[in-house]
């Protein structure tokens, strides 16, 4: 009888140990928290920008070397992100106050815009990019006694900038652009006929809303 009791006690002890092992085994392991997702730059965006430009204008042999003024405009674009790289395109247009006067002649850059490709490097909420493409602008030449003559000029632009994501939809940027609009002939068929052109540097700050 004593042997039977000891055997039963041993069986109960083994059964309890096995159950405890099963309970310990079935408990799920703690799951590490997921790493935070990086900022998503993909998609369409639109925004506004403002800044200051300076450069030079030409009117035949007369050199206008202090072209300067403010600008304010808007832009739309699209980004495609393949971490950590980004490619995209953008179109912008701005009202410009850049102008200069030399004696009886003056040059005004009334509007300036561009259509460019962008390539950049992303680091979480930061985007560092370069851009280049076609630039266009409304050049207006004024000559005493003849009035003014306005022409749209087409040239090229290149620039670079940095952009930061404040929220998942709102980003801010700081950008530098160089623009060369080439030359256009104004006052054709008059004694004042001449070629005018503008090159500018511009520093711009902007905000974008990403859809």
TrEMBL record:
Record has Signal as a keyword: yes
Alphabetical keyword list: Cell outer membrane, Membrane, Signal
Main localization (coarse): membrane
Residues annotated as signal peptide: 1-20
Compartments in which it is found: Cell outer membrane
Any Pfam family the entry gives: OMP_b-brl
Domain Outer membrane protein beta-barrel: start-end pairs: 22-211
Protein family (similarity comment): Belongs to the Omp25/RopB family.
The protein's name in its UniProt record: Outer membrane protein
Originating species: Kaistia terrae
